[in-house]
Amino acid sequence: MDVTAGNQLSVLEIERDEHTAILWLNRPEARNAMAPQFFEELPLAMERLSSDEEVRVVVIAARGEHFSVGLDLKAAASGGLMSSAPSGTTSMAGRAVATRKTVLRLQASITSVAQCPKPVIAVIHGYCIGGGLDLACACDIRLASENSVISLRETRMAMVADLGSLQRLPYIISKGHLAEMAFTAEDIVASRAKEIGLVNDVYPDREDTLSAARELADKIAANSPLAVQGAKAVMSRHETAQIAEGLDYVATWNAGFLASNDLVEAIAAFIEKRDTHFSGS
């Protein structure tokens, strides 16, 4: 077994075991919140794994108690995740262009997982919220531990989810279940996630879930990699263009509506640990 952080990786870690590679989310002290480094490193890691001929299956798992709580809101509040408008530009159009550019950049990072030619298995445990769900949805197969809490939480944060969940979930769960998750922003537990088809199976804890993912990866890796990758390419052919179109649309939508008073209120309430009071403006 080869474990390496790899060049240029600090919040991710790659572990190789024969034909299976595990990509670890490695920021447990922050519950694997997605800071700027995550979005920079994810495409680098996926390119490395995609081009490694010895790797036939990729497993995405997380160190610590949670898969990911999603976007690092403290980094977002400080401007660490958002591109600034061109120097000297304070116009609405300038801010919109900058926001759209940022959304497209973050989308591309998550999409690097979906574009991996090898099968990708997500191992979910603890919180899998917002961007964490975006990441899981970009994988081909999802397994979860019993303690998993999954949420498409953006509307609670006065945002429209824009990194892929709204585009990829229609190919995973029914329209009604997606609408319920998106509109209510409520948490669902692992058993409910399995019931609606969001995850394939549920296991007692993270270690059992990871073991099941390794076993599944071994079964996949035993088959012809050419045929397995061909099957993935054929299955994804129809949905790829529609997902890309949807991602572009939501980037444009959020360029106009993301900077709302409700979003400012949501982030302030999160930092101050209080209830939100939305005005719809």
Give a concise summary.
The chain is of the alpha/beta class and 281 residues long.
List the helices and strands and how they pair.
Elements: E1 2-4, E2 12-17, E3 20-25, H1 36-51, E4 57-62, H2 73-77, H3 92-114, E5 120-124, E6 127-129, H4 131-137, E7 141-145, E8 149-151, H5 165-168, H6 175-184, E9 188-189, H7 190-195, E10 201-203, H8 206-221, H9 225-257, H10 261-272
Parallel strand pairs: 3-4, 4-5, 5-7, 6-8, 7-10
Antiparallel strand pairs: 1-2, 2-3, 8-9
Helix pairs in contact: 1-3, 3-9
Report on this structure.
- The chain has 281 residues and is of the alpha/beta class.
- It has one domain (2-207, 222-272): 2-enoyl-CoA Hydratase, Chain A, domain 1.
- The chain has a 7-stranded mixed sheet with strand order 1-2-3-4-5-7-10, with helices on both faces. Strands 6-8-9 form a 3-stranded mixed sheet.
- The protein contains 10 helices and 10 strands.
- It has helices at 36-51, 73-77, 92-114, 131-137, 165-168, 175-184, 190-195, 206-221, 225-257, 261-272, and strands at residues 2-4, 12-17, 20-25, 57-62, 120-124, 127-129, 141-145, 149-151, 188-189, 201-203.
- The mean pLDDT is 92.
- Helix 1 (36-51) runs parallel beside helix 3 and helix 3 (92-114) packs antiparallel against helix 9 (225-257).
- The termini are far apart.
- Helix 1 (36-51) links the parallel strand 3 (20-25) and strand 4 (57-62).
Features:
2-enoyl-CoA Hydratase, Chain A, domain 1; 47% helix; 3-stranded mixed beta sheet; 10 helices; 7-stranded mixed beta sheet; globular; 10 strands; 281 residues; alpha/beta
